[in-house]
Amino acid sequence: MGLHDQYGLTQVINARGPFTPLGVSRSDERVTAAVAAALSGFFVMEELQDLASRTVARATGAQAATVVHCTSSAITLSVAAAMTGTAPERIAALPDTHGMPTRVVLPAGHTVDYGHPLVQDIRLAGATPVVSGTGDACTVADLERDLAHPDTACLVLVSSRLTRGAPVPLADAVAAAHRRGVPVVVDGAAQDLRIDELLATGADLVLVSGQKYLGSPTAGLVLGRAGAVRAVRAQEKGIGRAMKASKEAVIGVVEALGLRAELDQVAWRRAQTDKVAHFVARVSALPGVAGRVVDDPTGLPFPRASVVVDPAAAGRDAAALAAELRTGSPQIWVITQHQDRGELLLELVPLAEEEVAEILRALAALLPGTPQPA
């Protein structure tokens, strides 16, 4: 008996991608086994963090790394580190920031909401978010004006499909901050497949999730310049105590990175492309909808499936179709970000062939005029 049956939990097919309300992702059997082994043992946690730092550095080219509870906490701790450095008295004082730089600059379009406002992560450290530019656009000149204030602790940039407005050139923004002597933190929560690109911006710290595409237990990876990472690790003597990584999370990250190193990236990308192409061909044969292959808007190395709904032919609009998929058994969750313009998106990366087939069966059952099996 599986856990869903044992505890009376809802069966879900997750075509939304690494979505926190659905448990984010699936872990490989090797990661699961490593986590189980970690749960039954004792470790010197400092040694585990050193192991993680070496493993991440080897995998990414970063100078150093540390593992924290999640990416949200990584934002708070990175901001705290920018304010305190490794000074014990400052670390112990937070969130009282008297005598510290407290202004954290970020583009207006990067004030995203992951289920809670990113600016709240900044405030939790005792810092003050300073929003630069507008939701439509934030230029490097806008950032430079706000970075010029002597009380500026750091610049925070976000790499996510949730950002708004014209894209901010990350490398140029990093360079602008560094001209002022201001460190830069890049929040790339779901961007672990693009770590090399984010590090190439010159950012002092890059933050990614361990539990999204990497498939570890819940964890945030903080990687980048050794001194900046050291200041983040030092927060464990302060507010970081409430945001620490568990032994099984650190071991899970290490094992997941080992699996990533063994992955044939070319073959994996081809498999993702073929999976989406097959789905799009099948869904396009259904009445009232049209499928197409779309690239990830942030440059992740796999496509998504777009399903455009013709309300007249489908008998419902995109929002209604998404709602009906979620009321089935199993529930099917899709990306509804663009449902107001008639489009549903599906991310198929973690799904098995039978799950993809179940989505197609559910759509066929809902759409009028689809021939049903005898």
Q: What does this molecule look like?
A:
The protein has helices at 3-7, 29-39, 45-60, 71-84, 88-93, 118-124, 140-147, 170-179, 195-199, 226-234, 247-262, 265-283, 311-314, 318-326, 353-366, and strands at residues 12-15, 64-68, 103-107, 128-132, 152-158, 184-187, 205-209, 220-224, 289-295, 303-309, 331-334, 343-346. It has 374 residues and is of the alpha/beta class. It folds into two domains: 29-262, 3-Layer(aba) Sandwich (Aspartate Aminotransferase, domain 2), CATH 3.40.640.10; 264-366, Aspartate Aminotransferase, domain 1, CATH 3.90.1150.180. The strands form three sheets. It has a seven-stranded mixed beta sheet, with helices on both faces. A three-stranded antiparallel beta sheet has the order 9-10-12. Strands 1-11 form a two-stranded parallel ribbon. 45% of the residues are buried. The mean pLDDT is 94.
Features of the shown structure:
374 residues; alpha/beta; Aspartate Aminotransferase, domain 2; Aspartate Aminotransferase, domain 1; 2 domains; seven-stranded mixed β-sheet; three-stranded antiparallel β-sheet; 15 helices; 17% strand
How much of the sequence is in beta strands?
15-25%
Quickly name the level 1 CATH class of the largest domain.
Alpha Beta
Order of helices and strands: HEHHEHHEHEHEHEHEEHHHEEHHEEH
C-alpha termini separation? 31 Å
Helical fraction equals: 40-55%
CATH superfamily of the largest domain: Type I PLP-dependent aspartate aminotransferase-like (Major domain)
Query: Which topology of the largest domain does CATH recognise?
Result: Aspartate Aminotransferase, domain 2
CATH architecture call of the largest domain: 3-Layer(aba) Sandwich
How would the global form be characterised?
Answer: globular
Number of helices: 15
What's the gyration radius in Å? 22 Å
